[in-house]
Amino acid sequence: MNKNICIVYTHHKLGDLIWQLPYIKAISEHYNQSVDLILREKTQAKKILKNEKYINNINYNNFRKGIFYWIDVYKLVQIYNQNKYTHVYILDKVNKPAIAAKISGVKNIIGPGIGNQKKYLTTDTILNDDDWNLNYSEQSKKLLQLHKINLNNPYPQLNFNINEYNQKNSDLFFEGKKIALGIDSFEDYKMWYEEDFVKLTELLYKKNLFDYVYLICDPDKSYMAKKIIEISKKNYFIDCSKKDLTGVIIAIKNSQFFIGNNSGPLNLSAALGVKSFGLIANDAISELKYSKIQFITPKNYKDNTWIRDRKNMKTLKPDEVFTFLKNKIR
Question: Global pTM?
Answer without folding.
Answer: 0.93
